[in-house]
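Students often ask why we bother encoding 3D structure as a string. The short answer is that it lets us treat folding as translation between two languages. Here is a chain of 166 residues written in the first language.
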Amino acid sequence: MPRTTENRELRTGNLLIGVISDTHSRMRDSAIAALRGSDLILHAGDIGSPDIITALKKIAPVHAIHGNIDIAPLSKKYPATDVVEIGAFTFYMLHNLRALDLKPKAAGFHAVIFGHSHKPEFYFQEGVLYFNPGSAGPRRFSLPITVGKIRIENGELFPEIIELDD
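And here it is in the second language, the structure alphabet:
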């Protein structure tokens, strides 16, 4: 059963969704700055510390899932997957895309939000947006430090990856 956002204003109109993943207990000032102005924030797992969610909630309401590094209490508080309705769109969240065990289009999802690889990417497949904001936490290999945004405008999804200062 999808969870709808608490804020009635998020059900209609143009919206800005902040997307973050793989913080691994590190909240960068540049990530906070990049997500400022978001109407809602989605965290795609590997949170690392409850302080991350506390910091994000100062910007906007947060929907989060746990990732493979998240142990109790995070793994108890946040589910492994979630379905969130935002405006007229339904977002499916999971940490590792390889664990996807359904067909998003057939399930009626408009977007799949994931993390785990630390590799920022987005693409559309069968009309469904697949979006990995990359990692906002510690640098992994030579991958950039990033967050993402998805603008909802005129009934369409417009994804963007934002590279952060190190």
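Translate back mentally: Residues 50-57 form the longest helix (8 residues). Keep this in mind for the problem set.
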